[in-house]
Amino acid sequence: MADARRSAPEGRSRERDRDRSPLENFSEIEWEMVSIHWVDAESEGGPGWQDPEEMLEFARRPLPVMHTVGLLVYEDEDMVSVTDSKGPDDMGGVTKIPRVWIRQFVRLAPAEDRLDREHEASDRLPLDRLDAG
Q1: Is the pLDDT reported for residue 58 higher than 90?
Q2: Which domain holds residue 32?
Q3: Which single residue of 30, 59, 68, 104 has CA 20 to 30 Å from 91?
Q4: What is the pLDDT of residue 106?
Q5: What would the pLDDT profile of 63-103 be if each residue is shown by its tens digit?
Q6: Cβ neighbours of residue 129 closer than 8 Å, sequence gap 6 or more
């Protein structure tokens, strides 16, 4: 599987990454946008007695498939970690997803890159040349 790495500028060796603080150059790190479809764990019931019919029905129900889109904070051979927000000095919460739970993992291209490629393949005007009025 893939080597452990932070979603940071390429070219840094693993040894250098291990020696660096995760906060070093935090505001300059451009994290990749990813889309992940993954199977989630699920539980039902509590500490008291449960209705057997309801519990057996729940036990047979398919696991929920979740869809997470976010910024890739970290990945290694066991998991991927994503957040929904990043500012110059702060970030949102982190969701860690075990790789064995992942059904589909897609690295998303920045929208402007996609728009540039679409423009090259057509005769449409670039968005910055469109008259908004």
Answers
A1: yes
A2: 5-108
A3: 104
A4: 97
A5: 999 999 999 999 999 999 999 999 988 999 999 999 999 99
A6: none
Here the tokens at position 123 are 């005769």
CA trace torsion 31, 32, 38, 43 (10° rounding): 20
| Domain membership flag for residue 30 | yes
- At which residue do the structure tokens 């693993």 appear? 14
User: What are the C-alpha distances in Å from 71 to residues 64, 66, 77, 124?
Assistant: 22, 16, 18, 30
In a domain, 132, yes or no: no
Burial class of residue 73 in the structure, from the number of CB atoms within 10 Å of its CB (0-12 exposed, 13-18 middle, 19+ buried): buried
Indicate whether 129 belongs to any domain: no
Number of domains comprising the chain? 1
SS3 sequence of 19-43? HCCCCCCHHHCCCCEEEEEEECCCC
Band of pLDDT at residue 131, cut at 50, 70 and 90 = low
